[in-house]
Amino acid sequence: MPGKEQFSTAEICDGTPRTPGHEGASLMNSGPLPPRDIDAEIHDGQVDMTLGNRRYRARGLGKNMSYDQLKVNILLSKGDAVHVDTFDLYNARCRASFVKLAAAEVAVDVEVIKKDVGRVLLKLEELQDQQIADALTPRDRARKLSDRDHDAALELLKDPNLLQRITADFEACGVVGEETNRLAGYLAATSRKLDKPLAVLIQSSSSAGKTSLMDSVLRFMPPEEQVTLLHQYQRPIRTATCGDETIQYIEVTPQDIAVANGLAAEVLGRTLDELSPQARRLLILLHDMVSQKCRELAIDRSSGSPAPTSARSGI
After folding, report:
1. Three-state SS annotation for the chain
2. Per the confidence metrics, is the pTM higher than 0.85?
3. What is the pLDDT of residues 124-148, one digit of tens each?
4. Which of 30, 119, 132, 278 sits between 20 and 30 A of 193, alpha carbons compared?
């Protein structure tokens, strides 16, 4: 707006960690809590609420499965005027920033918007309580497949080109690039069926697509969790006896090992230039220490076996 200094929510909200009792201080301490009796329409992952001539739309509530945060995307509209932002409703500074900017944008008194946001917060809290309670309620997730679906699933699992088909499905859904990362994420997600499932930490610079990659992988995981262990229908189940215990295992092939090595090299491999200075220095020190010890013990560094006589003479 001409003649007025403009601020963004990001400039006003510095992301300072909240402490118990801090959230809501500036919004709720001036009187009784606003009523929760707001009619809300919930559809397609968003919540629509109307207060007078003002409409509030909240998105992202489903991702808030912890009571200590309520980070959502809030859009306020009045006629043709619109203000939208994503922030944690429990953060008083972020909330106050939204109130100030939204009031100016839609030309409504700040106190009116302040009370609106309080009612929206309490309504979303109520809905959040319901979704957390639903998630914690034990339920039978078993799903009976039809014969046709069962045969189609086995056909997919027995396909020698299973990994290529998974990659093609990602591309068909609009996920382009990140072939190694999306496949590694898919394998980690399906490993939830194992006694010791894999864990994945996605690291990259800001705005590099970490959330998009995670969401794309999770979209391939059905709620009923009937995705089976990759390749278990393509390999024979063998048994081995260890003491008094009989163990069942799936024997891998050289092709499986080659795929795993390729993924490991891409996912785990890092050059010295990609490491932090401290990690780079530590790696160099470890390398030098191991090399020195191998020379002292006359051990071949690559294999761990005793070094050949000719090599020992040069030590």
Report:
1. CCCCCCCCHHHHCCCCCCCCCCCCHHHHCCCCCCCCCCCEEEECCEEEEEECCEEEEEECHHHCCCCCCCEEEEEEEECCEEEEEEEECCCHHHHHHHHHHHHHHHCCCHHHHHHHHHHHHHHHHHHHHHHHHHHHCCCCCCCCCCHHHHHHHHHHHCCCCHHHHHHHHHHHCCCCCCHHHHHHHHHHHHHHHCCCCCCCCCCCCCCCCHHHHHHHHHCCCCCCCCCCCCCCCCCCEEEEEECCEEEEEECCCHHHHHHHHHHHHHHCCCCHHHCCHHHHHHHHHHHHHHHHHHHHHCECCCCCCECCHHHHHCC
2. no
3. 999 999 988 887 777 665 667 788 9
4. 132
Residues 122, 33 contacting (CB under 8 angstroms): yes
Provide φ and ψ at 75, rounded to 5°.
-115, 125
Residue 52, token pair as written in the block = 């007078």
